Amino acid sequence: MDKINLLVTISVITMFISLFLALFLVTVKTEHKLSNRLFAFFLILSAIDMIGNINSLFYISLNVRVFISSFFLLQLPTFYLYVLSVCYSDFKLKQKHLIHSVAFLIANLILLPHFYTVDLPSKIRLLEKSSSIPEIQFNHILMHIQMLLYIVAAFMILRKARKIYLENYAGASIESLKWLFQFTLALSAFYFIALVKNIFKFTVYLNISEGLKIGLLIFEFFIIFWYLYKALNNPSLFRNIDSKLKLVSDIISEEKKIEPETLNEDLLRLKKYMADEKPFLDPALTIQDISNSLDIPVRELSVLINHQLGQHFYDFVNTYRIENTIEILKDSSKSKVTVLEILYEVGFNSKSSFNTAFKKHTGNTPTSYRKRLQNKYL
Length: 378
Description:
The protein is elongated. It is mainly α. The chain is 73% helix and 0% strand.
């Protein structure tokens, strides 16, 4: 009885938080409306999925209960679309995206003749023998295959988006992709535990399945709070890129080889422009901005930096920012300027990305580098 009460209590609290956060995401004023609505829908689906845990509080017919359980097949497709919307600024929902509801429709159509349309005693007999009924076995296999495919697809999208970002941008969006990768990793762990729970559900170890169910609810509770914390404390975190941008490897395979003389000439112009005009001081600098200033096509400039120089655009720009940082740190007249003030001055808008870039370039943190300089001149 205590275990049942605990399950119901955690389910009710998690449902309330999920629905409250969904309402917040739908009503808050932001430029990322589609992303918010997709994640709100994901939260609503998660809340609906928990209704099965609280059916002791009110009557739910078997048809409705089974239909609600199939909503699980819409959760990961919705999360996948959410990942796309966060990664790509020009993402829009289209009719073709309805294909992501196919598994949900198939699962319910399979149950139509032998479950939804039969009398109550027949439904009960079917559920009692669920472990040996072909329709239910098929739906469980379908659910787990879908789970694997969508998690892999989400990681592939994130991997490609990260590469495109590094090759074309020099702002803070990489932090968004890092966080979204971590969040997807947490969801992957959640669904893996759910898979293990379902395996034990059809064995004699039902107590293990019930224990994992409670663990999953607590895990889900903390995941939702984690998302809320990140969204509220980092409103600028959720930025995205243009899906029309291509990877440099794809550009090279599509285009004819650029003449070495042209590359050398463009490289000299690029380095002079970076040194004289200091465009890297703009925290939102993109490869398109430099392309417009130098009148070099983006595709050629991308090949020049990412392929010819062997650097991502992100690292290329950060190199100039770090070199500028070192100049400031060496300037004795600016010894009282804080590291935080310096990072904003040289074009960074994230302390974590600044520290990572500085350590990658010098092997030291900004603070330890400054102390070494001070000790050197004492």
